[in-house]
Every structure is written in structure tokens, then in C-alpha cells.
Write a structure and sequence with these properties.
alpha/beta, 352 residues, 32% helix, single chain, 12 strands, binds NADP nicotinamide-adenine-dinucleotide phosphate
């Protein structure tokens, strides 16, 4: 298994310091986040390889289902740069997989390198893929978890890693998508824009809204919004993932949305689904393989889903009262649905 690895190039008396590992996690999370919204039904994952002095050798991220996992990208980059035999520590946001899926197990690829230790943020919630950490320990590697790391940045990094994984974790365990409800409220307390306008929030809030769309696999709306605004639901104020196709689900019991709107939406790259109620819409979204649904609807659907507890994250954008003031954005997690036990809700603000 370890044939071809020159172990004399690793200084076994040294190992990366906690601060270097924390920095590597921050970088692995940044890399993973670049592909958030492009990887369904797989999770976004980032990986950084360190040598025994704590210097970064290579890094990688998972980009799309069916392509290489983050660890394999990082190991290939290390090989290309001639530093493969210096790998001491693997820092990875998700436990390396241990099963033959569309790609061979990452645990085996790590075992075939000179890596001595693996530091993991989240355990794999996929029952088919678990056991990577145990396999590495069985073969004599040291495995640590970020949650056990004593460093001032560890809790914040852990919260980021859990939020990054939450849509995958929910989908793999329940078959349902992680639901983010975006709701904008004017200074007067209304969700309805003035006649002739489609929005009332600031330029920064508009960018936030498009970043939320970029991250989503599906958009869920109501017929009222479609009839009032003829919305495009495309990602415009930030660059979208290349060739990204999303699901657009419209709650429309009366079938009031025209075939013309639906075919125009298909031309914009959406798969369109008409649904009768939020619960069946979420079942359909989950069945399509979508892991995160963004609800962009008017007051009727928004209130109905919030009241029914059919949400995981609620992003509330409140218009600033005075001209020139920034909108107030608050993010809260549904403690009943969220798989992030820490309930931290700031990530969307810090990183978007
Ligand atoms: N501020 C914001 O964040 C925001 C975001 C989006 C839209 N808007 C504004 O909202 C306005 C439209 O408001 P709206 O309330 O009519 O739009 P909506 O909530 O998007 O759509 C309401 C329609 O959805 C259908 N529906 C299906 N299942 C439902 C359920 N369980 N609960 C509620 N509705 C269900 C109903 O039509 P059927 O009975 O035919 O099924 C209902 O008339 C527009 O002016 C738009 O600009 C604001």
C-alpha cells in the first residue's frame, strides 16, 4: 500500500502546530465554499496538506458530483509539485470517505501517502461512507477532530464546517432539502414593494440575495410572486457556477402561472415544477437530488412555511429607516430542524 512513498523525507520529530492547523482549516473551508451550490448531491469539501513544519504543500476542493473528492485533488497537486513524500498532515472539512462510490475511497488514497495524521472537522453523516477515520486509525495514522482542538478559532471554524455540511447532512438523513427562507421587509414593515418596483433593499442586500441563490440547488416561490413580478430567479450580481441548472418550484394550486412563464424559465436554465403545498414541494425538491432550497416568496407562502416550521435558516433583510443607512440582516436557525447543534447564524453574513 505504501510502496513508492519515500518516508525519509518526513521529519517525524516535528509536527504542525495548532495555529497552523487552524489556518489550514480556514483555507480548506474557503476553498470548499467556492463550490457551495455546485456539488449536489455531494457535499462541498476542502482539504489542505501540510508538511511536518506546518507549511502548506497542496490544497483541493470537491467541485461537482462524479468528479474527484477534495483529498484526491490535494494529493494529485502534491504529486505534481514533487512534494508528495513530504505530506505529514491532512486537514479536511469532512471525514475521508471509506466506500467505493463513483470514486475509490479517500481513506485508501491517504494511506498510500506519507501522511501521519489526519485532522477532520465533521464526521461523515452518510451511513454508506462512514468508517474513514476508523480505517486510518486501524492502519496506524493519528486522527484528530477539530471539535477537540484547543484553539480560540476552533469553535468558529467548527460552526462554518457544520453549516457547510448541513444541506448534505439533512438531505442524506431525511431525503429533504435544507430550507433557507429569505425575507425582505421595508422600513414600513411590509414585504410588498411600492407599485412599479420589484425591490426596496440596498445594493449590498441585493448581492446577498444573489449569493444565497448561487448557493441554492432549488428556488421555491408562490404564484403570487410570479404573477406580480415576473421574476427571473437567475444569479446576476455575483458570478454563477458554470453551467448550473436549478429547480424552480412554484406553489400554484389554481394553476394561475402561464405556460409562457414556465417555458421562459426553462429557457433560463430551470427545471420547473408546479406544486400544491410546501410539504409536497419539499419532498419533490429532495427527490430531485437538490440539497438546499431557497424560498423567495411573498408574504403568504413565507408566513405559511415559517408557521409550519418548514425551514432551517431564516435570512431577514430589514430596510434601513434613514437614507444612506445599511439594511439590517439577521440570520436565525431553526433549532428543531437544524443539524448544526451550535445554532450559529452568522456564517452567511461573514462569508457573503
Ligand atoms: N419582500 C420580499 O422578500 C418578497 C419576496 C417575494 C415576493 N414579494 C412580493 O410579494 C407579493 C406577492 O405576495 P403573495 O403573498 O401573493 O405571494 P406568494 O406568497 O409568493 O404566493 C402566494 C400564492 O401561493 C399559493 N400557495 C400555494 N400553497 C400555499 C400555501 N401553503 N400558503 C400560501 N400560499 C400558497 C397561493 O395560490 P394558490 O391558492 O393558487 O395556490 C397563493 O395565492 C409581490 O408583490 C412580491 O413583490 C416580496
Amino acid at each position: 500500500m505504501e510502496q513508492g512513498v519515500d518516508r525519509t523525507r518526513i521529519d517525524l520529530r516535528k509536527q504542525p502546530e495548532t495555529g497552523q492547523i487552524a489556518r489550514a482549516f480556514a483555507r480548506a473551508l474557503d476553498l470548499a465554499q467556492l463550490h457551495e451550490g455546485a456539488t449536489a448531491p455531494n457535499p462541498p469539501v476542502g482539504c489542505v496538506l501540510l508538511d511536518s513544519s506546518g507549511a502548506e504543500i497542496a490544497a483541493g476542493a470537491h467541485r461537482r458530483a462524479g468528479t474527484q473528492h477534495a483529498e484526491i485533488h490535494a494529493l494529485a497537486a502534491a504529486r505534481e509539485s514533487g512534494l508528495f513524500d513530504r505530506i505529514h498532515t491532512v486537514v479536511v472539512t469532512l471525514e475521508p470517505c471509506n466506500h467505493h462510490g463513483r470514486t475509490p475511497p479517500c481513506s485508501e488514497a491517504i494511506l498510500a501517502s506519507s501522511a501521519q495524521q489526519v485532522v477532520i472537522a465533521c464526521r461523515d453523516p452518510n451511513p454508506r461512507a462512514v468508517g474513514g477515520a476508523e480505517r486510518l486509525v486501524q492502519e496506524g495514522r493519528t486522527v484528530h477532530f477539530l471539535s477537540e482542538m484547543s484553539h480560540p478559532e476552533a469553535p468558529g471554524l467548527m460552526a462554518r464546517a457544520e453549516r457547510l455540511l448541513a444541506p448534505f447532512a439533512k438531505h442524506v438523513r431525511t431525503g429533504l432539502p435544507f430550507v433557507t427562507i429569505k425575507q425582505a421587509i421595508s422600513a414600513a414593515g411590509s414585504m410588498i414593494p411600492e407599485p412599479g418596483r420589484k425591490t426596496f433593499t440596498s445594493a449590498a442586500s441585493l448581492v446577498l440575495a444573489h449569493r444565497l441563490r448561487r448557493r441554492a440547488d432549488a428556488i421555491l416561490t408562490g404564484s403570487g410572486t410570479v404573477l406580480a413580478d415576473d421574476p427571473h430567479f437567475t444569479v446576476r450580481h455575483v458570478p454563477d457556477h458554470e453551467g448550473r441548472q436549478r429547480l424552480l418550484v412554484i406553489l400554484d394550486r389554481r394553476r394561475a402561472v402561464s405556460p409562457h412563464y414556465q417555458s421562459a424559465a426553462r429557457q433560463r436554465g430551470f427545471d420547473v415544477l408546479i406544486a400544491d403545498d410546501p410539504a409536497s414541494a419539499l419532498t419533490g425538491i429532495g427527490a430531485s437530488g437538490a440539497m438546499e432550497a431557497l424560498v423567495e416568496a411573498g408574504p403568504s407562502v413565507t408566513a405559511s412555511m415559517l408557521d409550519a416550521g418548514l425551514w432551517d435558516e431564516h435570512v431577514l433583510i430589514e430596510q434601513a429607516a434613514g437614507a444612506g443607512n445599511e439594511d439590517r440582516v439577521t440570520v436565525r436557525r431553526n433549532p428543531a430542524f437544524s443539524l448544526d447543534s451550535q445554532g450559529k447564524g452568522t456564517d452567511v453574513l461573514r462569508h457573503y
